[in-house]
UniProtKB/TrEMBL annotation:
Record-given protein name: Putative spermidine/putrescine transport system permease protein
A Pfam family reported for this protein in Swiss-Prot or TrEMBL: BPD_transp_1
Region (Disordered) residue spans: 1-23
Species in which this protein is naturally found: Paludibacterium purpuratum
Bilayer-spanning residue ranges: 31-50, 84-110, 122-150, 170-196, 217-238, 244-265, 277-299
Domain of life: Bacteria
Entry GO CC: plasma membrane
All copies of domain ABC transmembrane type-1, residue ranges: 84-298
GO terms under biological process: transmembrane transport
PANTHER family found in the cross-reference section: INNER MEMBRANE ABC TRANSPORTER PERMEASE PROTEIN YDCU-RELATED, INNER MEMBRANE ABC TRANSPORTER PERMEASE PROTEIN YDCU-RELATED-RELATED
Topological category with respect to the lipid bilayer: Multi-pass membrane protein
Gene3D superfamilies: MetI-like
């Protein structure tokens, strides 16, 4: 009678052993997973979270480190509001143009019935061009569309057309917008291509079987499905252009008073140096780009649910 409890105990321990081993392996797997994601978490902490917190603290301090709301209030002065307005216009126009042209390029390459080599070539170029910015991009456009640029000279020599005689300048709002389009269009191609790939052939067949033509399909079926992806991509392009500083500074210098250049002048300049006001300007940019990215994430989730 006394040996039965021992037998029962041994049986229970033997039965529980595999479960304990599985639990240990599961915990080890979770530990390895967290170890694998640790570099990303550390990167986000050091280069995103902590700098943002520092900006928030600096925007609410004066030069002596005392709490103040003066920096936030100065964001609503005419000069700074004008800089934000110009940045909004450049970002909006480049985002709208990039979204439209990029969408048409992606549609033509993916569903336009073009030769098979077109799509991989376009995607490869888009991957390179979407990351081509800063001083090299500014130099490329100055060398092409500057006052003595290659295209300007060719137009003058062969077509007797003086581009700068029309009032155009590469250092103006129009010139900066054209420069931004160089990386906005390929970025749109890369972002919207998966949504176009998600379009099912059965939808077009169902529309045609019900008597709908090509225009009816795109207007009543395809565009409503793609609209969240298109709008979300446009918001991402807006945030991308709003936060760009290297290209604008290298191209226009201080001739175009946009927020990133004004921020650079406040942080690193000798005349307009006001570090805490620069923090407030950066905080305002973070708010604008953060709202744009949040809208993109929300619209993307809607688009994924719609396609699914």
């Amino acid at each position: 009678m006394q040996r039965k409890p021992m037998a029962i105990t041994e049986t229970v321990e033997q039965a529980g052993a595999p479960g304990s081993g599985a639990t240990s392996r599961r915990r080890a797997g979770q530990a390895l997973t967290w170890l694998g994601i640790a570099p990303f978490l550390i990167f986000a902490l050091l280069f995103l979270i902590l700098p943002t917190l520092q900006l928030m603290v600096g925007a609410l301090q004066d030069a002596q480190g005392h709490f103040t709301l003066n920096n936030i209030a100065r964001l609503f002065t005419d000069d700074i509001l004008g800089a934000y307005w110009i940045s909004f216009k450049v970002s909006f126009v480049s985002a709208a143009g990039g979204a439209l042209i990029g969408l048409l390029l992606a549609l033509a390459a993916i569903q336009g019935g073009l030769p098979g080599w077109i799509r991989p070539t376009l995607m490869t170029f888009s991957g390179v061009a979407s990351n081509f910015a800063g001083v090299p991009l500014a130099f490329a456009f100055l060398a092409t569309l500057g006052r003595i640029g290659l295209l300007t000279a060719l137009l003058r020599q062969y077509l007797d057309f003086d581009l700068y005689g029309t009032g155009f300048s590469i250092l103006s709002f129009t010139g900066l917008t054209l420069t931004y389009l160089y990386f906005q269009i390929p970025l749109m191609v890369l972002i919207v291509a998966p949504a176009i790939d998600g379009m099912k052939a059965e939808w077009r067949e169902a529309c045609e079987s019900l008597g709908g033509g090509t225009w009816y399909f795109w207007w009543h079926v395809a565009l409503p499905i793609l609209f969240p992806s298109i709008l979300g991509s446009a918001l991402l392009l807006f945030a991308n252009a709003f936060g760009a500083v290297a290209t604008a500074y290298a191209l226009t210098g201080s001739s175009l008073n946009i927020v990133p250049i004004l921020l650079f002048a406040q942080i690193r300049g000798d005349v307009l140096h006001d570090q805490n006001l620069g923090y407030a300007l950066a905080l305002g940019m973070i708010v604008v780009t953060g709202l744009s990215n949040a809208g993109y994430i929300w619209l993307r989730s809607r688009a994924e649910r719609g396609v699914a």
